[in-house]
């Protein structure tokens, strides 16, 4: 959905949660049995002589730089837990199992690379004509290359390395900083319009949510209709790039204003008696800051605990749900209040009822009393 675009990728890395559970089970087996078995399809491979293999892979850009032939281990090799070696570590016609740490690349030529639980590879993990199984940490890229040793080159299969927990937390904290800056900017330059959106949220929250959901569903169709209308004339065709940019910026602005309004409402609801002594601007600033910290704090917590098999997915689901409902309702309130202008206009122009009669007093030219037309009662003659 449009409302969640700014938050995509936070707290998940690039792994699916179902795969995480499966890898956790494999990790438990790796802890009990450090020697990890190779995949069935990789147990028998006709890779030829080592010299022939090196001639084929040295010029391949997908394979990291290889050491001399005498530095390559033939057969299986295990880096035990607690042990640290300097890479690149290369095995030929065997399985490279990393339970400790490799400072550099971990490469298997005609075999598999297995990074067990607690294992660390500071470089790339590459398996030529084999598979890569990762239960530990790989700081570089993860690649499983096929067809490299054949006469006809086959396009390699690359397994993109997911972001680490630290990078997910940094991403969430970065969004927190950006949204705080935007929120303060809105308070400085457009506080009356922000308060108009907040008032709409307070009085018509679920109606705002329904309108926001309809707006999200209609975002793409409206853009398509706009482009079709512009294609009618030559000038319209020339204006299409500018119209698309303007539309995207307007939609992003509405979503941002709605999110800041939700943060303002959330932070204001968490106020105490001391908040009542603050000025209107000070109270609004406090509400925006506290609300943003609460909403983005869920994403930061979900990112920090994303590696946990049950807690991580649960926290992320909560963060996604709360953010979706909040931003959707904020968008709907922004639409209903016309970006806060409807409330501003209503409070800025209050008509004054005219005085329909006056009674003279002994002092000439001074009106003793006046009564508005709305309060005039019928008096019998």
Domain module tally: 2
Q: Using only CA atoms, what is the Rg?
A: 33 Å
- Helix % is 40-55%
Number of helices: 8
What does the overall shape look like? elongated
Output the strand order for the largest sheet. 1-4-7-10-13-14
Low-confidence stretches: 13-47, 151-160, 344-349
Element-by-element helix/strand order:
HHEEEEEEEEEEEEEEHHHHHHEE
Distance, first to last CA: 69 Å
Q: What does the largest sheet look like?
A: 6 strands, mixed
Give the class from helix and strand content and strand pairing: alpha/beta
Write the layout of secondary structure elements.
Elements: H1 17-32, H2 50-57, E1 73-74, E2 77-79, E3 84-86, E4 89-92, E5 96-98, E6 101-103, E7 106-109, E8 113-115, E9 120-121, E10 125-128, E11 132-134, E12 137-138, E13 142-145, E14 157-159, H3 165-203, H4 205-230, H5 234-269, H6 280-304, H7 311-336, H8 341-348, E15 355-360, E16 367-372
Parallel strand pairs: 1-4, 2-5, 3-6, 4-7, 5-8, 6-9, 7-10, 8-11, 9-12, 10-13
Antiparallel strand pairs: 13-14, 15-16
Describe it for me?
The protein has 381 residues and is an alpha/beta fold. It has two domains: 129 residues, no CATH class; 183 residues, no CATH class. 48% of the residues lie in helices and 14% in strands. Strand 15 and strand 16 form a beta hairpin. The termini are far apart.
Q: What is shown here, in short?
A:
This protein has 381 residues and is α/β, with parallel strands linked by helices. It has helices spanning 17-32, 50-57, 165-203, 205-230, 234-269, 280-304, 311-336, 341-348, and strands spanning 73-74, 77-79, 84-86, 89-92, 96-98, 101-103, 106-109, 113-115, 120-121, 125-128, 132-134, 137-138, 142-145, 157-159, 355-360, 367-372.
């Amino acid at each position: 959905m449009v409302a969640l675009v700014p938050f995509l990728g936070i707290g998940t890395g690039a792994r699916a949660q179902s795969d995480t559970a499966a890898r956790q089970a494999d990790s438990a087996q790796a802890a009990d049995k450090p020697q990890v078995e190779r995949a069935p399809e990789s147990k028998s491979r006709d890779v030829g002589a080592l010299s022939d293999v090196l001639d084929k892979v040295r010029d391949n850009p997908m394979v990291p730089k290889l050491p001399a032939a005498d530095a390559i281990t033939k057969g299986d090799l295990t880096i035990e837990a607690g042990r640290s070696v300097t890479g690149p570590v290369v095995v030929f016609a065997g399985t490279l199992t990393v339970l400790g740490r490799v400072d550099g690349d971990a490469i298997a030529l005609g075999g598999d690379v297995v990074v067990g639980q607690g294992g660390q590879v500071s470089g790339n993990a590459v398996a030529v004509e084999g598979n890569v199984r990762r239960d530990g940490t790989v700081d570089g890229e993860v690649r499983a290359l096929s067809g490299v040793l054949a006469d006809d080159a086959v396009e390699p299969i690359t397994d993109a390395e997911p972001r680490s927990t630290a990078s997910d937390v940094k991403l969430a904290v970065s969004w927190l900083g950006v949204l705080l800056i935007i929120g303060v900017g809105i308070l400085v330059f457009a506080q009356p319009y922000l308060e108009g959106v907040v008032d709409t949220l307070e009085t018509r929250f679920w109606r705002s949510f329904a309108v926001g959901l309809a707006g999200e569903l209609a975002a793409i169709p409206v853009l398509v209709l706009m482009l079709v209308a512009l294609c009618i004339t030559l000038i319209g065709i020339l204006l299409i790039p500018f119209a698309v940019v303007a539309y995207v910026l307007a939609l992003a602005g509405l979503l941002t204003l709605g999110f800041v309004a939700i943060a303002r409402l959330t932070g204001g609801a968490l106020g105490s008696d001391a908040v009542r002594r603050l000025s209107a601007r000070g109270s609004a600033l406090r509400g925006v800051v506290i609300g943003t910290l609460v909403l983005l704090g869920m994403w930061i917590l979900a990112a920090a605990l994303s590696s946990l098999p049950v807690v991580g997915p649960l926290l992320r689901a909560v963060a996604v749900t709360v953010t979706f409902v909040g931003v959707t309702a904020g968008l709907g309130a922004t639409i209903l209040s016309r970006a806060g202008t409807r409330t501003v206009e209503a409070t800025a122009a209050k008509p004054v009822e005219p005085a329909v009669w006056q009674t003279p007093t002994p002092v000439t030219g001074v009106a003793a009393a006046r009564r508005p037309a709305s309060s005039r009662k019928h008096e019998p003659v």
